[in-house]
Design brief:
The complex is a heterodimer of chains A (598) and B (190).
Chain A (H helix, E strand, L loop, with lengths): L19 H13 L5 H8 L3 H10 L2 E4 L7 H7 L5 E5 L20 H8 L8 E5 L5 H10 L6 E5 L6 H10 L4 E5 L27 E3 L9 H9 L6 E4 L5 H10 L5 E4 L14 H14 L4 E3 L21 E3 L7 H4 L11 E5 L3 H11 L5 E5 L13 H10 L5 E6 L4 H10 L5 E6 L14 H10 L5 E3 L6 H10 L5 E5 L5 H10 L5 E5 L5 H5 L10 E5 L5 H10 L3 E6 L13 E6 L12 E3 L1
Parallel strand pairs in A: 1-2, 2-3, 3-4, 4-5, 5-6, 6-7, 7-8, 8-9, 9-10, 10-11, 11-12, 12-13, 13-14, 14-15, 15-16, 16-17, 17-18
Antiparallel strand pairs in A: 18-20, 19-20, 19-21
Helix pairs in contact in A: 1-3, 5-6, 6-7, 8-9, 9-10, 12-13, 13-14, 14-15, 15-16, 16-17
Chain B lengths: L1 H10 L18 H5 L7 H17 L1 H4 L14 H20 L6 E6 L6 E4 L6 H11 L1 H9 L5 E7 L4 E3 L5 H7 E8 L5
Helix pairs in contact in B: 3-5
Classes of the chains: A alpha/beta (598), B alpha+beta (190).
């Protein structure tokens, strides 16, 4: 995770600058062009005024990780030569319906206007994450993006519809159009526009086209024709309305795919031709011969009998996303044995501990694992447990990132993982039942999480769950020195826990807390650190208006938002959601009625 | 009397999934009653696992009063939650209509040399059943008609072993309780 752009005021200098400065600037710019890492660039920009100038002029990739914190105008002034813009708006907890809709409804509009008015003349790529984007915004962009514009990625965005996509498709010579996990606006069936048909009729430069989350049917003839006239296409992700037979035809037109989202992976209702097992295997076998396919996803409604056809490509796979496919242990064993090069795996807990054991045996190079719940409820059936986690930790020693949903867990298993997987940078454990202790000993999960922060020195992101006392946070504060992101839910006994976190985790940038017994005293213990943080989210805690006002008063550059998470209920006292973030441009103006800015 | 019938139906061993027979009979924790079978087929597992989902959401007051559903917990995006709930509901519906092996019951007719079997799930109502029986036993019926016995009644044997007249109870209830069908000649049916 990199720093957000920090616009510290440069030190004051006398106005007359000797000509030598210009030479210096040119030299600096030439040298700084080679600096890629965002942290390095941030550091360079803080050296002095000329370094600041040179760095700003040469920065290619600009990331504004909270668009409420820095305006489009300011960003354009500072980074006029930006070629790629990454913008994010909502905090992550908004994904779980904790923020009412409309919280930042028009946040993107000023950016669309800025881009449309040529504020970023060199812009080639736009990556929007968790931002509400309307069709009007997309229309505006489509009509006025520079001719150099190539890549548009919409990730976890919402508010737009097929009409917006149609605008973009028809006006821009796109290289990348990725619509990922977006919650698009609902449309009447007859209103839906076939945006795939809107791509210009001549051969395209498309390298990546992804619409796995698109809810409606796409005209297959148009899609097939588009793929056929896109010779550079290497990444294709289709939605669940594309059948297996249709997928085979698309694959035939795009022999050099590196990433494939397979759609439904099931024959169309009513049967399809050319779908005996061997024929499907043949399609994948051609992909193998090209040696390019390294990433598979989709399987949105897969027919069990066809799943083993992917075995033939498994040896090349680095990424496999089965997170929409309820695969059983018996099914996964049919192909996972070939996946010895796999680095990223997403599965549902339907694979059970036995399935995870086969993963642990086969996927020795695994770096990132996500085990997601088929039935995301607190009282869902136990499908995976500490057995699966232990197996993974023994088999996949190079693991760097894990997200594990389960119903039962033990300290022993977590401790074992901390010892077996020293490379861990991300550890996110979600024991779905709230306040669940160690399922064998009945103790809180303090020791497990303590071991993680103690033994995994590279840990930058941690999500906790289960029954945790203040002791767990004592460990986190004491040992979590590289922690940048911490998520805590239904844990802790008192303000002491929050104090441990804020006083101990010196590199903390993002703090998400929900439903913990933390109050003003805990919050105020972090005053020395809040300016170094990207944001703090605290919901369902014991904060009071007074405490939040104290923070707002002492930290004038923090925007302190108090949000009423359930606007339909009148909240008499107490703070529902506190969301605060540093900002260069002061509080935003478009505040919905359920938000109060102190 | 009604209470007894309900209790009996709750304890009865059946092939159906929880909730597939009649919607009133959703047990409080379907997962515990069926989690004994470790090596189940996938469809069963998925329907059970997801079956608690809709049940929990709809009847959370009735099922587990201690744990009302909390907003945003577990932290899974709504799209993902809805994908599996929708799929599970669809599968459950499909399985209600399809058979898991069919619900075949013997049909006997007095005077017919051999019995037949029909799949009760193939029919949507009594009229279709009657037409099917007509078709199956057409020879025997016409033979009986010639002998002067035009009318016949269809009766069924329920799980208690009692002979009941077909047509009194709603179709779904009939399917779940019918064990055998018997076509009786008009003279006997009085």
């Amino acid at each position: 995770m990199s720093e957000e752009d920090e616009d510290q005021p440069p030190p004051k200098r006398p106005t007359a600058s000797p000509p030598a400065d210009q030479v210096l600037d040119n030299v600096l710019e030439t040298v700084l062009q080679f600096l890629d890492a965002p942290r390095d660039r941030s550091a360079a920009s803080l050296v002095c005024r000329s370094w600041h100038r040179a760095e700003s002029a040469t920065r290619d990739s600009v990331a504004v990780r909270n668009i409420l914190a820095a305006s489009a105008a300011r960003t354009a002034r500072r980074f006029p030569n930006a070629r790629s813009l990454l913008l994010k708006a909502r905090p992550r907890f908004a994904d779980f319906n904790l923020l009412p809709p409309g919280w930042a409804a028009s946040a993107f509009r000023p950016w669309a206007v800025a881009v449309a008015s040529g504020a970023f003349p060199a812009l080639t790529a736009l990556y929007l994450k968790r931002i509400p984007v309307t069709d009007a915004d997309l229309d505006l962009l489509a009509g006025s993006l520079p001719a150099t514009f190539l890549d548009l990625t919409l990730h976890l965005c919402d508010g737009f519809s097929s009409h917006g996509l149609a605008s973009i498709a028809s006006h821009c010579r796109l290289r990348v159009l990725d619509v990922v996990e977006c919650d698009m606006a609902e449309e009447e069936e007859q209103e839906v526009v076939d945006w795939v048909a809107k791509f210009p009729p001549e051969p395209t430069n498309l390298e990546s086209l992804s619409f796995e989350c698109y809810a409606y049917l796409v005209d297959f003839a148009a899609l097939e024709a588009l793929v056929a006239r896109s010779p550079r296409l290497s990444r294709l992700g289709v939605n669940q309305h594309v059948s297996l037979g249709q997928l085979r035809r698309l694959m035939a037109h795009a022999p050099r795919l590196t990433r494939l989202g397979t759609g439904s992976f099931r024959p169309a209702d009513g049967g399809e031709e050319g779908l005996n097992f061997g024929e499907v295997v043949t399609s994948f076998a051609s992909a193998v011969r090209a040696r390019t396919l390294v990433s598979l996803s989709g399987f949105r409604d897969h027919a069990q009998e066809y799943l083993p056809t992917i075995a033939v490509v498994c040896a090349n796979l680095k990424n496999l996303d089965l997170s929409y496919a309820p695969v059983t242990p018996n099914q996964i064993v049919m192909f996972i044995g070939q996946c010895y090069n796999l680095e990223t795996l997403l599965v549902l807990d339907s694979v059970r501990d036995e399935g995870l054991q086969t993963v642990a045996i086969s996927c020795k190079k695994l770096q990132s694992l996500r085990v997601l719940p088929l039935d995301a409820h607190e009282d869902a059936e136990e499908l995976v447990s500490e057995v699966g986690l232990s197996a993974i930790s023994r088999g996949c020693r190079g693991l760097r990132s894990i997200l594990y949903f389960c119903q039962r867990m033990t300290n022993a298993a977590v401790i074992a993982m901390s010892q077996n997987c020293p490379e861990l940078k991300v550890f996110r454990l979600c024991i779905m039942g709230r306040h669940r202790p160690d399922s064998v000993t009945g103790e809180p999960m303090d020791e497990g999480f303590g071991a993680i922060v103690r033994n995994c020195s590279k840990l930058t992101r941690l999500s906790t769950s289960g029954h945790l006392t203040d002791r767990a946070f004592e460990y986190i504060g004491k040992y979590g020195k590289s922690l940048r992101t911490l998520s805590v839910a239904f844990a802790g006994d008192s303000d002491l826990a929050l104090q441990h976190i804020l006083e101990g985790c010196s590199k903390l940038e993002k703090l998400e807390i929900r439903d913990c017994p933390f109050g003003d005293a805990g919050l105020l213990s972090g005053m020395h650190h809040f300016y170094n943080m990207r944001f703090v989210w605290m919901s369902g805690c014991n904060l009071t208006l007074q405490g939040c006002k104290d923070v707002a008063r002492s930290l004038p550059r923090m925007v302190v938002e108090l949000v009423n998470g359930q606007p339909e209920n009148k909240r008499a006292e107490g703070v529902d959601i506190l969301y605060m973030y540093r900002s260069l441009d002061g509080p935003r103006e478009d505040i919905p009625p359920f938000v109060k800015i102190l | 009397m009604e209470m007894d019938a309900e209790n009996l139906s709750a304890t009865e061993l059946r092939l159906g999934l929880p909730g597939s027979s009649s919607s009133d009979d959703l047990p409080k924790k379907p997962s515990t009653s069926t989690s004994a079978g470790a090596k189940r087929s996938l469809d069963d597992t998925k329907s059970e696992a997801s079956g608690t989902g809709p049940a929990a959401v709809d009847d959370h007051d009735a099922t587990t009063p201690a744990k009302a559903q909390v907003v945003g917990w577990p932290p899974v995006r709504a799209y993902r939650k809805n994908t599996f709930q929708a799929a599970a509901a669809k599968k459950a519906e499909q399985q209600q209509q399809q058979s898991q092996g069919g619900l075949y019951v013997k049909v006997s007719m007095d005077g017919a040399p051999y019995l037949r079997k029909v799949d009760l799930r193939m029919y949507k109502g009594y009229r279709e059943l009657r037409e099917a029986l007509d078709a199956l036993f057409t020879k025997s019926i016409s033979a009986a008609a010639e002998a002067g016995d035009r009318q016949y009644a269809v009766a069924y044997e329920d799980k208690d072993g009692d002979l009941m007249l077909v047509g009194d109870v709603p179709w779904d209830m009939f399917i779940s309780s019918c064990k055998k069908l018997r076509i009786m000649k008009g003279s006997e049916a009085r």
